[in-house]
Amino acid sequence: MNMTHTGIILATNTVQNKDVESEVRELKELSESIGIEIVGTHIQNRTSIDRKSYVGSGFLEEVKMQYEDIDYAIVNDEILASQNRTIENILDTSVIDRTQVILDIFSLRAQSKAGKLQVELAQLEYLVPRLKGQGINLSRLGAGIGTRGPGETKLETDRRHINTRIRDIKRQLAVIEEHRLRYRDKRRSNQVTKVSLIGYTNAGKSTLFNKLTNAETLQEDKLFATLDPLTREMVLPSGFQCIISDTVGFIQKLPTTLIESFKSTLEEAADSDFIIHVIDNNAPDLVSQYDTVLDLIDSLNMKDIPQLILFNKTDLNDEKRLLPASPHQFVNMNMPAEDILMDVENFMTKYFDAYDAELPLSRQDKIYRLKRQTIVKELKIDEEKVKVSGFEPEGNFAERIVKKDDKRE
Known about the structure:
Blueprint: E1 5-13, H1 20-32, E2 36-45, H2 57-64, E3 72-75, H3 81-91, E4 94-97, H4 98-109, H5 113-127, H6 136-141, H7 152-156, H8 159-189, E5 194-199, H9 205-213, E6 230-235, E7 241-246, H10 256-261, H11 263-270, E8 274-280, H12 286-299, E9 307-312, E10 328-330, H13 337-349, E11 353-360, H14 364-373, E12 375-381, E13 385-392, H15 397-403
Parallel strand pairs: 1-2, 1-3, 3-4, 5-7, 5-8, 8-9, 9-10
Antiparallel strand pairs: 6-7, 11-13, 12-13
Helix pairs in contact: 2-3, 4-5, 5-8, 14-15
């Protein structure tokens, strides 16, 4: 992306930070994805964040002396309006925090009506408590970085107007959620197995999604390329048919406003029978990214869902730097889709129930249904019968298929 602005990063390193260097590298990449060239990073070791100025005012004065002119100071944490004003006054530049950068990226990436509404809701809920006393941030930015989406006119209206818009967005999202609930209920009634791809942003989920489903969804080497959940049919080597969803990527310090706004989208993953956790095996912060996703899985009450971990991009780095207890495989985009699908199939069989069934040779239609709705592992055919062995989702699929419409036999 063309760099149209310059900026510096301010960060504090307190006991709460797991890996501040990793966070700063990520924030630099986030900032550059919206056109801000980072010309310097400044980390202050502190016991706690300064309530007035985030970092100490003396530290800010030292930073100011190092630059003649910068467009933005980007703060590694979500900050208060009072902290924002203090940093602005000392550095004499526009200040945006990590949350605003992420919200701005989301506003650029959202494509569906639901995605756009969810981003706007998150932006407005972030802004409401910060409307009073917005100084340089609004007057200099206009509808620029950190305010993209709702637009300048919405930001300059009063709090009551914004609260009215928030209520309106929530009503629209409630209607969309009703449609999703009806779809989920229909899927449950049809007992369709659902798989969700989750993982850190830019881990290669969309590339894998396309490979496993022969779809042509957006796959780009950039953060948050996929915001809107996509669902397609996935057919395993045995012929078993299930559905798989590609979801929004996770990130360190994902803003709480975004988690809340995208809750219905994230609940799509929480409603899954299986999770495929995709990890970028070439990422320098692999362990940190893994921990971030596990924390979010826990916070979304998804830790009890069976999870297969796919270490992706092994064509770029095939080192085994992390060996989790969960089932895992090492994959890349150059591998045949059939190989990866077989890994998924073998993983599922560990959680399905084994079954044996016997059918007349004349009932090819039922054999076809068994192949579509269960994982058939063996067929034994004699002159009159077909013996089928395999694995089925909970619900006695095979027995119901075999017994249905027996009078025709």
